[in-house]
Target: SERTA domain-containing protein 4 isoform X2
Amino acid sequence: STTSKVAYFKRKYAEEEDVQGSLHGYLQKHLILREERSCILRLSLQKLRFLDDPEAFLRRAVLINNLLRKIHSDDGQRDRDRARNGEKEEEEERERLFYVDRKRLKVMVTPEHGHPIFL
Model:
């Protein structure tokens, strides 16, 4: 009976510790995030004070950012063009097999011996 009471209190104490520990961890994490944000803000304001012309710095930063976006966009467009060109090459190959004469459709057939025949 006494061992069950001891086990009960140990378990209850451990459960309370878990709740308090998780609450403490949450609050501590929240406070750390807040401190980090305030530190970043403070450093940013200090840097801003040391700039001779903050507007020129901002324009330069925007130009650099726009250039990076353009480069990224151009790379994406180049990849899409390559994919399309691959499709175009297949289409051109099909067009070589089928082409229209003035009066009738001609089809190039390659039999097993490998010499093309136009029908």
Residues 1-50 form one domain.
